[in-house]
Amino acid sequence: MTAAEQTAMPGPAARFVGQSVTRKEDRRLVAGHGEYVDDIVLPGLLHAAFLRSEVARATIAGLDVEAARKLPGVVAVFTWQDFDQQFGEAWHAMLGEELQVPPPLAVTDVRHVGDAIAMVVAESRYVAEDACELIEVDLDPAPPVVDYRNAAADTDNLVHGAWGFPSNAMVEVPFTPLAPDLDEAFTSADHVVEATIEQNRYLCVPMETRGIVASWSRGRDELDLVCSCQGVHETRNFFARYLRVPEANVRVTARDVGGGFGQKMFVFREECATVLASKLIGRPVKWIEDRRENLIAAPHSRNEQGHVRLALDDDGTIGAIAIDHVADVGAYPACPAVMDTQLLPGPYKIPRLGFSTAMVWTNTMGKGAYRGPWMFETTAREMAIDVAARRVGLDPVEVRRTNLLGAEDLPFTSSSGNVFQEITPRETLEQALDMLDYDAFRREQAAARADGRLLGLGASAYVEPTSMGAPTLATEGATVRVESSGKVVAFIGTTSHGQSVETTIAQIVADHLGVEYDDVTIVQADTQSTPYGPGTGGSRTAVVAGGAARQATMAVRHKVLTVAAHAMEASPLDLDIEGGVVSVRGTPVRSMSLAEVAKSAYRLADSLPPDVEAGLEATARFRPTQFPTWSNATHLCVIEIDPATCVPTIQRYIVSEDCGPMINPQVVDGQIHGGVVQGIGGVLLEDFVYDDDGNPLTTTFMDYLLPTTTEVPDIEIGHVETRSTTNPGGFKGMGEGGAIGAHAAVANAVADALAHLGIEVTRTPLGPNDIHSLLDAAGAA
Amino acid sequence: MVDVSVTVTVNGEARTGVVEPRRTLADFLREDCRLTGTHLGCEHGVCGACTAMLDGRAVRSCLVLAVQADGREVTTVEGLSDGDGPTPVQEAFRAEHGLQCGFCTPGFVVSVTALLADNPSPTDDEIREGLSGNLCRCTGYQGIIRAVRRAAEETAAVTP
User: Are A251 and A222 in contact, with CB atoms under 8 Å apart?
Assistant: First the structure.
């Protein structure tokens, strides 16, 4: 069908898109009938456990697994020698061939606490763990590199010295001005404010830990994987390369996944080991990570710092921003996702940018993606703006009003070349301030301070680059089919892990085909039946997978109308489909059900027009017209700190966001809620701590504190809807935004609560101990 | 230690197994009874994903041994409904978007069922306090708290 013909076709009605329909996922999940990886049982299934290093940096001087091998119930104990030469290439399409997943087990030395040294495979997990305790390992410790701020300068202690790397700097980019007059802007500004902003290490912590069931079939050279992952297709492609077999010999499924947040985007060393174990033993092997392993050995995130400089005029106009940025990527980064320095100016009219950046290795757990992996640009900028505003005697909110992009500033090209067209930074700020009643808040705050109370407001604004254009991420595919019964199925390349994809894609398909939502089934996360998809992440499902589903549905719709028009002796242009019935517009008595159309298409081939193929199916791949699709939001957080206990309590939390038209408002709000609470946790509760020797100190949920019902506020959300032109639905991604904006909003609220005491806040976390230290240092404790 | 024979009434049905004394109730339910709705999120008694009812009281089945449940009654998330569709609590979680990935959901559904059995009309503070032993990483608890309110209201409406 040509574009012109498609335009001429009757437009589908929006019955489901825009509605908070009940999720398709929920019926099974509320009843305990989900199918997560640990629920899989196979004949002959074995269970794996890893012996992990308790030392941050050491040479393996001795390793004796004989006692473990002799324990009844143990089937195999693997060390590096057993896996050496057993596998091929180990890279992900999205990260490139240079970034190989490290060997599945430590080779000669360990480089962080949690580094896997040996793997036991046994008839039960209990026995596998017993056997791990029988392994004798002799580690010869060396001084670890723990503090990333000094790691690049440390040439005596090298994290990857055994690989011949002469420095702990994985990447170093020298200071790069993106404006010719950057220096001049700093020299001529009324004020130059400098602050070092430091963000603590906090983690994804999906409630379902990592896990995999690997079954190698010796007769067919086939690998069947069930795994807790965010992308079955890239997992399949990875293991096809890894085992040197065609992609068709590897099947990966993930029916239900208990959260990921970026952590499960890429293949892990432990998964490689489990696959090799199944191949070497010839039986299915399951590895389910325990929570301690998840905390110490699943990818870490967020630990970055930046020295920020802002050039401001007396009226608060920001003329330039610059940063010297350092990120800790740990020993083995799963994905070296760090701050996007080009995004530092964010949604502001800041005309000049300069930056340097360094990613440094340390003897700690490696970095991975976490919901908005680049988000330190927001934390750094938003915290620095608050510091700057106070130092020059301005209200941080007014500084934002002065500098945020508004409708009249668009389109706007940032100093790093980002083009903003359909965003609403100042409009969301104003909406959020209205929701708060800003003037009333400042009056309440003044009264509270007079009473000795510590009450503060934090703001944070950001733009979110969703549906990014990295080559592997640019497209998604969908196959839509009207079955012979008239029911509809859509096969999509996504691997959802909480995003409600079965629901939202079904809403799109139902509307564009003209059928009931309940008559649409979504199939995903199965490499044998679905089109290739690079994985669910990067806030791209609504835009890219939604676009593919729409495009395939429109092609099927065209065919349904063609077949029906022929049967009804009408013009396709006079037909409409509603509730699964094709009828002549204005003459509802002339109609055919979708089942009758399907009968013609599948079983009565002679009844079809001569140029029409049998069947009712179409496949499409969709690529947005531009990258990325920008969305934006402003967050406001009100916090009161108890002066006696230093416990911060969130009184209000307000988000005003613009993700364009919402497919399902309840799902959008749910994504915002979850992201915001992750940001709240990261500032007030969650902090992954290593001691000076590289020992992790927060290895249980008694030490690594997640937010609970008693710490989270009711979150208030306002929407500004501006359509995007990158896709026909006008959608914008938004899955990561809550977690991007919340960190700075919460930190700034604490800062505002303490500001009148002369306290400046430049680092997180900000739990009661940290707040007490700040008050103590200011003589106010 | 020698294995022990245990008989537990699970969702109204007597289930017998021979278990190691160290086997947790959670593993007994998941592996021996094949009731995989009870999830393990931390195995150290904090996250609440493994919450089940033991003689009508909510317990963390990762901190109870199967031998401790011998001769007692256990209800798991699979056994809450009498077979006529979802319970009011389960229905409320659907209606209020009280779940996303669904992994913590069985523990929440069991905890909320026990909470409302003890206190059919909890205040917001009582809801928050009552659920503070269950962790969710997706929803920010917003839909969960709404679901408890809705379930309480609907249960009150049908039982005058």
Answer: yes
